[in-house]
Amino acid sequence: MALFEAEDYGIIAKRGSWTMVSILTVVVGIRIYCRLSFGRNMIGPDDWITMLCLVVAYVDCIFTTIGISYGLGKHYATLDPADAVQALRWSIIASTVNVWVFSLPKFAIVAILKRILDFQTKTAILFWGLCLTSQACILATSVWWVHQCSPVEYGWDRSIPGTCYPVSVLQNLGYATTAYSAFLDIFFALYPVPFIMRLNMPLRSRIAISVAMSLSVSACAISIYKLAIFKTIFDVLAEDPTYPTPYFFMLGFAEGFVLITGASFPAMGPLFHAIKRKVTTAISSKGESSNSNMRPGGSHISGSGKRWRNFRVHGIDSHNKTLESIDAIPLYPVGTVTTMTREDDSIHKATDTPSSMA
Protein backbone atom coordinates (compact mmCIF):
# COMPACT_ATOMS: atom_id res chain seq x y z
CA MET A 1 0.00 0.00 0.00
CA ALA A 2 1.35 3.43 -0.99
CA LEU A 3 2.01 6.09 1.59
CA PHE A 4 -1.11 7.86 2.89
CA GLU A 5 -3.65 5.66 1.16
CA ALA A 6 -5.10 4.21 4.39
CA GLU A 7 -8.38 5.63 5.59
CA ASP A 8 -7.35 5.74 9.25
CA TYR A 9 -3.73 5.84 10.40
CA GLY A 10 -4.87 6.10 14.00
CA ILE A 11 -5.73 2.40 14.19
CA ILE A 12 -2.40 1.42 12.59
CA ALA A 13 -0.38 3.65 14.92
CA LYS A 14 -2.32 2.54 17.99
CA ARG A 15 -1.72 -1.16 17.32
CA GLY A 16 1.90 -0.65 16.36
CA SER A 17 2.81 1.59 19.29
CA TRP A 18 1.14 -0.53 21.96
CA THR A 19 2.71 -3.68 20.53
CA MET A 20 6.15 -2.11 20.71
CA VAL A 21 5.65 -0.74 24.22
CA SER A 22 4.47 -4.17 25.38
CA ILE A 23 7.61 -5.79 23.98
CA LEU A 24 9.71 -3.04 25.57
CA THR A 25 8.10 -3.76 28.93
CA VAL A 26 9.17 -7.40 28.69
CA VAL A 27 12.67 -6.49 27.51
CA VAL A 28 13.24 -3.91 30.25
CA GLY A 29 11.74 -6.28 32.84
CA ILE A 30 14.18 -9.02 31.85
CA ARG A 31 17.01 -6.50 31.92
CA ILE A 32 16.21 -5.43 35.49
CA TYR A 33 15.76 -9.07 36.52
CA CYS A 34 19.25 -9.85 35.21
CA ARG A 35 20.73 -6.90 37.09
CA LEU A 36 19.11 -7.99 40.35
CA SER A 37 19.65 -11.75 39.96
CA PHE A 38 23.19 -11.93 38.60
CA GLY A 39 26.41 -10.37 39.75
CA ARG A 40 26.46 -7.37 42.05
CA ASN A 41 22.68 -7.04 42.32
CA MET A 42 23.00 -3.37 41.40
CA ILE A 43 20.92 -1.21 39.11
CA GLY A 44 23.19 1.23 37.33
CA PRO A 45 22.59 4.62 35.68
CA ASP A 46 21.98 2.94 32.33
CA ASP A 47 19.14 0.91 33.88
CA TRP A 48 17.51 3.97 35.46
CA ILE A 49 17.69 5.84 32.15
CA THR A 50 16.18 2.85 30.35
CA MET A 51 13.30 2.71 32.84
CA LEU A 52 12.75 6.44 32.33
CA CYS A 53 12.63 5.83 28.57
CA LEU A 54 9.99 3.15 29.13
CA VAL A 55 7.89 5.56 31.21
CA VAL A 56 8.14 8.19 28.46
CA ALA A 57 7.11 5.57 25.90
CA TYR A 58 4.00 4.76 27.93
CA VAL A 59 3.13 8.45 28.28
CA ASP A 60 3.52 8.91 24.53
CA CYS A 61 1.28 5.91 23.82
CA ILE A 62 -1.39 7.18 26.22
CA PHE A 63 -1.41 10.71 24.80
CA THR A 64 -1.47 9.43 21.21
CA THR A 65 -4.28 7.00 22.04
CA ILE A 66 -6.34 9.83 23.55
CA GLY A 67 -5.84 11.85 20.38
CA ILE A 68 -6.82 8.86 18.25
CA SER A 69 -10.03 8.49 20.25
CA TYR A 70 -11.00 11.97 19.02
CA GLY A 71 -10.20 11.13 15.40
CA LEU A 72 -6.46 11.72 15.10
CA GLY A 73 -5.33 9.73 12.08
CA LYS A 74 -8.53 10.37 10.13
CA HIS A 75 -9.09 13.05 7.53
CA TYR A 76 -9.73 16.44 9.12
CA ALA A 77 -12.75 17.13 6.93
CA THR A 78 -14.55 14.03 8.22
CA LEU A 79 -14.32 14.98 11.90
CA ASP A 80 -16.88 16.72 14.03
CA PRO A 81 -15.61 20.27 14.77
CA ALA A 82 -15.44 19.61 18.53
CA ASP A 83 -13.56 16.34 17.98
CA ALA A 84 -11.22 18.02 15.50
CA VAL A 85 -10.24 20.59 18.14
CA GLN A 86 -9.50 17.88 20.71
CA ALA A 87 -7.65 15.73 18.16
CA LEU A 88 -5.34 18.61 17.23
CA ARG A 89 -4.86 19.55 20.88
CA TRP A 90 -3.77 16.05 21.82
CA SER A 91 -1.65 15.84 18.68
CA ILE A 92 0.39 18.80 19.86
CA ILE A 93 0.64 17.40 23.40
CA ALA A 94 1.72 13.97 22.13
CA SER A 95 4.25 15.49 19.73
CA THR A 96 6.12 17.15 22.61
CA VAL A 97 6.55 13.71 24.21
CA ASN A 98 7.12 11.64 21.08
CA VAL A 99 10.37 13.37 20.19
CA TRP A 100 11.80 12.32 23.56
CA VAL A 101 10.98 8.67 22.88
CA PHE A 102 13.76 8.40 20.29
CA SER A 103 16.14 10.93 21.86
CA LEU A 104 16.38 9.84 25.51
CA PRO A 105 17.56 6.27 24.66
CA LYS A 106 20.80 7.79 23.37
CA PHE A 107 21.66 8.59 27.00
CA ALA A 108 21.03 4.94 27.88
CA ILE A 109 23.39 3.88 25.09
CA VAL A 110 26.15 6.17 26.35
CA ALA A 111 25.63 4.90 29.90
CA ILE A 112 25.87 1.23 28.86
CA LEU A 113 28.97 2.01 26.77
CA LYS A 114 30.51 3.64 29.84
CA ARG A 115 29.71 0.48 31.80
CA ILE A 116 31.25 -1.77 29.16
CA LEU A 117 34.23 0.25 27.94
CA ASP A 118 34.95 2.43 30.98
CA PHE A 119 36.15 5.25 28.73
CA GLN A 120 37.99 8.24 30.15
CA THR A 121 36.85 11.79 30.85
CA LYS A 122 37.48 13.27 27.39
CA THR A 123 35.45 10.58 25.68
CA ALA A 124 32.72 10.88 28.30
CA ILE A 125 32.52 14.64 27.71
CA LEU A 126 32.30 14.04 23.96
CA PHE A 127 29.57 11.40 24.22
CA TRP A 128 27.44 13.22 26.78
CA GLY A 129 27.96 16.46 24.88
CA LEU A 130 26.61 14.88 21.69
CA CYS A 131 23.56 13.64 23.58
CA LEU A 132 22.95 16.99 25.26
CA THR A 133 23.16 18.90 21.99
CA SER A 134 20.66 16.44 20.53
CA GLN A 135 18.33 17.08 23.47
CA ALA A 136 18.72 20.82 22.94
CA CYS A 137 17.53 20.39 19.35
CA ILE A 138 14.66 18.20 20.54
CA LEU A 139 13.68 20.75 23.17
CA ALA A 140 13.72 23.56 20.61
CA THR A 141 11.51 21.51 18.29
CA SER A 142 9.08 20.68 21.10
CA VAL A 143 8.80 24.30 22.22
CA TRP A 144 8.32 25.54 18.67
CA TRP A 145 5.68 22.89 17.95
CA VAL A 146 3.60 24.27 20.83
CA HIS A 147 4.29 27.99 20.36
CA GLN A 148 4.27 28.29 16.57
CA CYS A 149 0.82 29.86 16.76
CA SER A 150 -0.30 32.99 18.58
CA PRO A 151 -2.23 32.53 20.74
CA VAL A 152 -1.16 28.96 21.47
CA GLU A 153 -4.79 27.78 21.42
CA TYR A 154 -5.04 28.76 17.76
CA GLY A 155 -2.82 25.77 16.99
CA TRP A 156 -5.74 23.43 17.67
CA ASP A 157 -8.77 25.70 17.54
CA ARG A 158 -9.01 27.64 14.28
CA SER A 159 -12.35 29.14 15.26
CA ILE A 160 -10.60 31.80 17.35
CA PRO A 161 -8.57 34.72 15.94
CA GLY A 162 -4.86 34.03 15.59
CA THR A 163 -1.90 33.48 13.32
CA CYS A 164 0.72 30.76 12.84
CA TYR A 165 4.20 30.77 11.38
CA PRO A 166 4.61 28.92 8.09
CA VAL A 167 4.81 25.15 8.52
CA SER A 168 8.16 25.28 6.70
CA VAL A 169 9.81 26.56 9.91
CA LEU A 170 8.78 23.44 11.82
CA GLN A 171 9.72 21.35 8.80
CA ASN A 172 13.27 22.75 8.76
CA LEU A 173 13.62 22.19 12.50
CA GLY A 174 12.44 18.62 12.00
CA TYR A 175 14.94 18.07 9.19
CA ALA A 176 17.85 19.27 11.33
CA THR A 177 16.79 17.34 14.43
CA THR A 178 16.12 14.09 12.58
CA ALA A 179 19.34 14.29 10.57
CA TYR A 180 21.37 14.85 13.74
CA SER A 181 19.55 11.97 15.43
CA ALA A 182 20.39 9.70 12.48
CA PHE A 183 24.05 10.70 12.73
CA LEU A 184 24.16 9.87 16.44
CA ASP A 185 22.45 6.52 15.84
CA ILE A 186 25.06 5.44 13.30
CA PHE A 187 27.91 6.93 15.38
CA PHE A 188 26.99 5.07 18.58
CA ALA A 189 26.39 1.90 16.56
CA LEU A 190 29.77 1.71 14.84
CA TYR A 191 32.23 3.67 16.98
CA PRO A 192 32.37 1.25 19.96
CA VAL A 193 32.73 -1.94 17.88
CA PRO A 194 36.58 -1.92 17.61
CA PHE A 195 36.89 -1.35 21.37
CA ILE A 196 34.35 -4.05 22.23
CA MET A 197 36.25 -6.53 20.04
CA ARG A 198 39.37 -5.91 22.17
CA LEU A 199 37.70 -6.87 25.46
CA ASN A 200 38.92 -9.93 27.34
CA MET A 201 35.94 -12.20 26.77
CA PRO A 202 35.06 -15.04 24.39
CA LEU A 203 34.87 -14.06 20.75
CA ARG A 204 31.22 -15.04 20.53
CA SER A 205 30.39 -12.72 23.43
CA ARG A 206 32.25 -9.83 21.82
CA ILE A 207 30.45 -10.39 18.53
CA ALA A 208 27.07 -10.67 20.28
CA ILE A 209 27.57 -7.40 22.18
CA SER A 210 28.80 -5.64 19.03
CA VAL A 211 25.76 -6.82 17.08
CA ALA A 212 23.39 -5.76 19.88
CA MET A 213 24.89 -2.29 20.11
CA SER A 214 24.88 -2.03 16.31
CA LEU A 215 21.09 -2.28 16.26
CA SER A 216 21.27 1.51 16.31
CA VAL A 217 21.93 1.18 12.58
CA SER A 218 18.29 0.13 12.21
CA ALA A 219 17.24 3.23 14.14
CA CYS A 220 19.37 5.28 11.76
CA ALA A 221 17.56 3.65 8.82
CA ILE A 222 14.22 4.70 10.33
CA SER A 223 15.49 8.27 10.71
CA ILE A 224 16.62 8.31 7.08
CA TYR A 225 13.20 7.07 6.01
CA LYS A 226 11.61 9.87 8.05
CA LEU A 227 13.84 12.37 6.28
CA ALA A 228 12.81 10.94 2.92
CA ILE A 229 9.09 11.44 3.59
CA PHE A 230 9.37 14.67 5.58
CA LYS A 231 8.27 16.96 2.76
CA THR A 232 5.32 14.71 1.91
CA ILE A 233 4.18 14.60 5.54
CA PHE A 234 4.35 18.36 6.02
CA ASP A 235 2.63 19.00 2.71
CA VAL A 236 -0.22 16.80 3.91
CA LEU A 237 -0.19 18.43 7.36
CA ALA A 238 -0.74 21.84 5.81
CA GLU A 239 -4.02 20.66 4.26
CA ASP A 240 -5.06 17.77 6.52
CA PRO A 241 -3.52 18.33 9.98
CA THR A 242 -5.03 15.30 11.74
CA TYR A 243 -4.35 12.64 9.10
CA PRO A 244 -0.59 11.82 8.91
CA THR A 245 0.39 12.63 12.51
CA PRO A 246 -0.06 9.16 14.11
CA TYR A 247 2.00 7.54 11.36
CA PHE A 248 4.81 10.00 11.99
CA PHE A 249 4.58 9.39 15.73
CA MET A 250 4.80 5.64 15.15
CA LEU A 251 8.05 6.05 13.20
CA GLY A 252 9.59 8.01 16.08
CA PHE A 253 8.37 5.37 18.49
CA ALA A 254 9.92 2.62 16.34
CA GLU A 255 13.28 4.40 16.45
CA GLY A 256 13.19 4.56 20.24
CA PHE A 257 12.06 0.94 20.39
CA VAL A 258 15.10 -0.24 18.44
CA LEU A 259 17.50 1.85 20.54
CA ILE A 260 16.16 0.66 23.90
CA THR A 261 16.07 -2.98 22.79
CA GLY A 262 19.62 -2.89 21.45
CA ALA A 263 20.94 -1.21 24.60
CA SER A 264 19.23 -3.85 26.78
CA PHE A 265 20.59 -6.99 25.12
CA PRO A 266 24.12 -6.79 26.65
CA ALA A 267 22.60 -6.72 30.14
CA MET A 268 20.77 -9.98 29.40
CA GLY A 269 24.00 -11.87 28.72
CA PRO A 270 24.14 -13.62 32.13
CA LEU A 271 20.60 -14.93 31.67
CA PHE A 272 21.40 -16.32 28.22
CA HIS A 273 24.52 -18.01 29.62
CA ALA A 274 22.57 -19.46 32.55
CA ILE A 275 19.93 -20.90 30.22
CA LYS A 276 22.60 -22.31 27.94
CA ARG A 277 24.41 -23.89 30.90
CA LYS A 278 21.21 -25.53 32.18
CA VAL A 279 20.39 -26.91 28.74
CA THR A 280 23.94 -28.21 28.29
CA THR A 281 23.91 -29.79 31.75
CA ALA A 282 20.57 -31.46 31.09
CA ILE A 283 21.79 -32.88 27.78
CA SER A 284 25.05 -34.06 29.35
CA SER A 285 23.23 -35.71 32.25
CA LYS A 286 20.89 -37.47 29.86
CA GLY A 287 23.85 -38.68 27.80
CA GLU A 288 25.73 -39.94 30.86
CA SER A 289 22.62 -41.75 32.09
CA SER A 290 22.22 -43.40 28.70
CA ASN A 291 25.87 -44.47 28.64
CA SER A 292 25.56 -45.81 32.19
CA ASN A 293 22.62 -48.00 31.20
CA MET A 294 24.57 -49.39 28.27
CA ARG A 295 27.64 -50.17 30.39
CA PRO A 296 27.95 -53.92 31.31
CA GLY A 297 27.69 -54.76 35.00
CA GLY A 298 25.76 -51.64 36.03
CA SER A 299 26.83 -48.08 36.55
CA HIS A 300 30.35 -48.62 37.85
CA ILE A 301 32.66 -45.73 37.03
CA SER A 302 36.41 -45.90 37.40
CA GLY A 303 38.28 -43.67 39.82
CA SER A 304 39.76 -41.61 37.01
CA GLY A 305 36.27 -41.14 35.55
CA LYS A 306 34.98 -39.90 38.89
CA ARG A 307 37.87 -37.46 39.19
CA TRP A 308 37.22 -36.11 35.69
CA ARG A 309 33.51 -35.69 36.39
CA ASN A 310 34.25 -33.95 39.69
CA PHE A 311 36.68 -31.67 37.91
CA ARG A 312 34.02 -30.78 35.36
CA VAL A 313 31.40 -30.09 38.00
CA HIS A 314 33.53 -28.29 40.59
CA GLY A 315 36.23 -26.83 38.40
CA ILE A 316 34.88 -25.69 35.06
CA ASP A 317 31.33 -25.06 36.22
CA SER A 318 32.54 -23.10 39.25
CA HIS A 319 34.68 -20.95 37.02
CA ASN A 320 31.79 -20.34 34.62
CA LYS A 321 29.52 -19.37 37.50
CA THR A 322 32.19 -16.98 38.77
CA LEU A 323 32.41 -15.27 35.41
CA GLU A 324 28.66 -15.09 34.99
CA SER A 325 28.21 -13.71 38.48
CA ILE A 326 30.20 -10.62 37.59
CA ASP A 327 27.79 -7.86 36.67
CA ALA A 328 30.30 -5.78 34.75
CA ILE A 329 31.54 -7.33 31.53
CA PRO A 330 35.35 -7.88 31.70
CA LEU A 331 36.68 -4.45 30.85
CA TYR A 332 40.27 -5.21 29.95
CA PRO A 333 41.85 -5.89 26.57
CA VAL A 334 42.86 -9.38 25.60
CA GLY A 335 46.22 -9.91 27.26
CA THR A 336 48.23 -12.05 29.61
CA VAL A 337 46.19 -13.96 32.17
CA THR A 338 47.83 -15.72 35.10
CA THR A 339 46.26 -18.73 36.78
CA MET A 340 46.45 -19.39 40.51
CA THR A 341 45.31 -22.55 42.25
CA ARG A 342 43.65 -22.43 45.66
CA GLU A 343 41.94 -25.41 47.27
CA ASP A 344 41.60 -27.17 43.91
CA ASP A 345 39.57 -24.26 42.47
CA SER A 346 40.79 -22.41 39.39
CA ILE A 347 40.91 -18.66 39.90
CA HIS A 348 41.75 -16.47 36.92
CA LYS A 349 43.14 -13.06 37.56
CA ALA A 350 43.82 -10.52 34.84
CA THR A 351 47.14 -8.77 35.02
CA ASP A 352 46.11 -5.96 32.68
CA THR A 353 44.59 -2.70 33.73
CA PRO A 354 41.04 -1.77 32.65
CA SER A 355 40.83 -0.65 29.07
CA SER A 356 40.39 3.00 28.51
CA MET A 357 39.59 5.19 25.60
CA ALA A 358 41.27 8.50 25.05
> Helix segment count?
12
Q: Which sequence of SSEs, written as H and E, runs from N to C? A: HHHHHEEHHHHHHHEE
Structural class: mainly alpha
Overall pLDDT:
79
The radius of gyration is: 26 Å
How far is the first residue's CA from the last residue's CA? 49 Å
Characterize the main sheet.
2 strands, antiparallel
How much helix, percentage-wise, in residues? 55-70%
Q: Tell me, what is the CATH class?
A: Mainly Alpha
CATH topology heading: Rhopdopsin 7-helix transmembrane proteins
Indicate the CATH architecture.
Answer: Up-down Bundle
Total beta-strand segments: 4
The main sheet orders its strands as: 1-2
Percent strand equals: under 5%
Low-confidence stretches: 298-358
Number of domains: 1
Shape: elongated
Tell me the layout of helices and strands.
Blueprint: H1 9-37, H2 45-69, H3 81-101, H4 105-117, H5 121-147, E1 149-150, E2 163-164, H6 167-190, H7 193-196, H8 203-213, H9 216-239, H10 245-264, H11 269-294, H12 303-324, E3 337-342, E4 345-350
Antiparallel strand pairs: 1-2, 3-4
Structure description:
With 358 residues, the protein is mainly α. The chain has one domain (9-271): Up-down Bundle (Rhopdopsin 7-helix transmembrane proteins). 69% of the residues lie in helices and 4% in strands. It has helices at residues 9-37, 45-69, 81-101, 105-117, 121-147, 167-190, 193-196, 203-213, 216-239, 245-264, 269-294, 303-324; strands spanning 149-150, 163-164, 337-342, 345-350. The longest helix is centred in the first third of the chain and has 29 residues, at 9-37. The two termini are 49 Å apart. Residues 298-358 have low confidence and may be disordered.
